Amino acid sequence: MKCRRAVIDLPLRLTLTLLILSLSLPLADAALQMQERDAAMRECGVQAEALLDTATVVYFQGGGSSRHVPLTLPSSTSLTVTEGGLIIEHEGKALGTVMANNPSFPLFHDHPITLKDGDMVELTAVEREGIHGVMVRIL
């Protein structure tokens, strides 16, 4: 009798096990994707701050000084240059900004610039219309 009951309960146990797995696997996948995105954003933020630190050095060295900075960004991220700082983007969505402060200076650019992995960035101290700042170009 015990053996027969175990055989009858087996489909129910298998069904419950598959139900629990089918509900928990998508949640685990979503958590892993969020963790991956957060890690990419942190790495991109570190690169953005390093770029602004180099821009600050160029700014203090005065007109005509220049530096080249290679970027290594995660493949799904990019940096968009604005006059106030850098916008951190992940898969085309803006998720954060990094601003130049102490002192605050503008980042000049000739046209909208989006920086991606592998770009070589040139930072040059310039003056435009009486305002001192740093020109950002992609080489």
Can you describe this structure?
The chain has one domain (2-138). The model has no long low-confidence stretch (mean pLDDT 83). The strands form two sheets. Strands 1-7-8-5 form a four-stranded mixed β-sheet, covered by helices on one side. It has one helix and eight strands. The chain is rod-shaped and about 90 Å long. The longest helix is centred in the first third of the chain and has 60 residues, at 2-61. A hairpin with a 2-residue loop joins β7 and β8. The chain is of the alpha+beta class and 139 residues long.
Reconstruct the topology from this structure.
Layout: H1 2-61, E1 66-70, E2 77-81, E3 85-90, E4 93-99, E5 107-108, E6 113-115, E7 120-128, E8 131-138
Parallel strand pairs: 5-8
Antiparallel strand pairs: 1-7, 2-3, 2-6, 3-4, 7-8
Structural class: alpha+beta
Q: Based on the structure, what is the oligomeric state of the protein chains?
A: single chain
Poorly predicted runs of 5 or more residues:
none
Query: Beta-sheet strand percentage?
Result: 25-35%
Question: Which descriptor suits the 3D outline?
Answer: rod-shaped
Q: State the share of residues found in helices, binned by percent.
A: 40-55%
Main sheet strand line-up: 1-7-8-5
What profile does the largest beta sheet have?
4 strands, mixed
- The H-and-E topology, N to C, reads as HEEEEEEEE
Number of strands: 8
